[in-house]
UniProtKB/TrEMBL annotation:
The lineage of its organism: Bacteria, Pseudomonadati, Pseudomonadota, Betaproteobacteria, Nitrosomonadales. It comes from Thiobacillus denitrificans (strain ATCC 25259 / T1). The keyword Nucleus does not apply. Residues 8-74 form the HMA domain. GO terms for molecular function: metal ion binding. This is Probable copper ion binding protein.
């Protein structure tokens, strides 16, 4: 995953994903956030790797988007 200048990367543990549809849902909600440049979601081990602009979005907003989609986010 490429990180441009001024971009950060975070790995969010996502709980509750059981299928490819879940992966797609998480990918969609995270990608829709302003400041998110790219998202890679893996069913196993249950995580989302996000490249983002910290001036536009933070971990709390990303976690809330995942929760709003029906999943939970670990620490």
């Amino acid at each position: 995953m490429n990180r441009g200048a001024g971009m950060n990367e975070i790995v969010l543990p996502v709980n509750g994903m059981t299928c490819g549809g879940c992966v797609s849902s998480v990918q969609k909600v995270l990608s829709a956030l302003p400041g998110v440049a790219s998202v890679e979601v893996s069913l196993t081990p249950g995580q989302a790797r996000v490249v983002y602009d910290a001036a536009k979005v933070d971990r709390a907003a990303m976690a809330q988007a995942v929760v709003d989609a029906g999943f939970s986010v670990g620490e």
